[in-house]
Design a protein that fits this description.
Elements (H helix, E strand, L loop, with lengths): L8 H14 L12 H8 L3 H13 L3 E4 L3 E4 L2 H4 L5 H5 L7 H25 L2 H16 L3 H19 L2 H16 L16 H9 L3 H23 L1
Antiparallel strand pairs: 1-2
Helix pairs in contact: 1-3, 2-3, 6-8, 6-10, 6-11, 7-8, 7-10, 8-9, 10-11
Length: 230
């Protein structure tokens, strides 16, 4: 393992260890090397290693037991949503299979959030969803449309009035924000993306129509993304 450059050492240690755990260099149940050995291997001080390991513990990627050292956890069984941002793009490359699962979850979440929004939204939220739908259709380029899409979906989730949905969406958002340019494909060919149908259903308080329209919209976005990713 190459030694680390001496800048932002705790962050670098954390990123290296996360990448190693998620890539399977250390298997679930396996002991990590002792902190002193890790410090020597990475060419950093013990304080940097301790901070990096502490952050791994916070993500529930490792656990420390007295007399047993640090053991790697099965992140799929023990990890929370905050692991997603690291798992999707660890090692500098996107994990296409996991991105597909994230966007599947996004579609299901948005569909149910839209149905709830149709029954719970305020008049102001309905007006904002409608305005954003029109602004997306008129956007001059994909970058602008991507920002508006983000605002549109965030408004729908807020209008759903479900805190758990909001927290899950925050984790998906963190994945999304890490690689904005790679996810921009979801707003290509906007003339075929029917944001207006979602807005109209929410405005009409038609939960079934809102769910159907958002499912169609999010599914179309998934297709565009995976066409672009190959």
């Amino acid at each position: 393992m190459a030694q680390l450059a001496r800048t932002s050492l705790p962050d670098q240690v954390f990123r290296r260890l996360v990448a190693d755990v998620l890539a399977g260099r250390y298997a679930a149940g396996e002991r990590l090397p002792a902190q002193r050995a890790l410090a020597a291997e990475l060419g950093v001080n013990m304080a940097s290693v301790r901070e990096g390991v502490k952050r791994l513990e916070q993500l529930r990627l490792v656990e420390t037991r007295h007399g047993d050292g640090m053991r790697v956890c099965d992140w799929r069984a023990r990890g929370g949503l905050d692991v997603l941002v690291h798992a999707v793009a660890h090692g500098g490359a996107l994990n296409a299979a996991l991105v597909r699962e994230v966007f599947e979850a996004r579609r299901l979440l948005l569909a149910e959030a839209s149905a709830l929004a149709a029954t719970r939204r305020s008049a102001a939220q309905a007006q904002l969803v409608d305005r954003l739908a029109r602004e997306i259709a008129a956007a001059g380029d994909d970058e602008a449309a991507q920002g508006l899409d983000f605002a549109f979906m965030a408004t729908v989730i807020e209008a759903a009035g479900n805190v758990a949905f909001s927290l899950i969406a925050n984790s998906i958002r963190d994945v999304y924000l890490q690689r904005l340019e790679l996810f921009r494909a979801i707003v290509t060919r906007r003339e075929e993306l029917d944001y207006a149908a979602v807005a109209a259903a929410i405005g009409a308080r038609d939960d079934a129509a809102a769910r159907t329209a958002m499912t169609a919209l999010a599914s179309a976005q998934e297709r565009r993304l995976f066409e672009a990713l190959g």
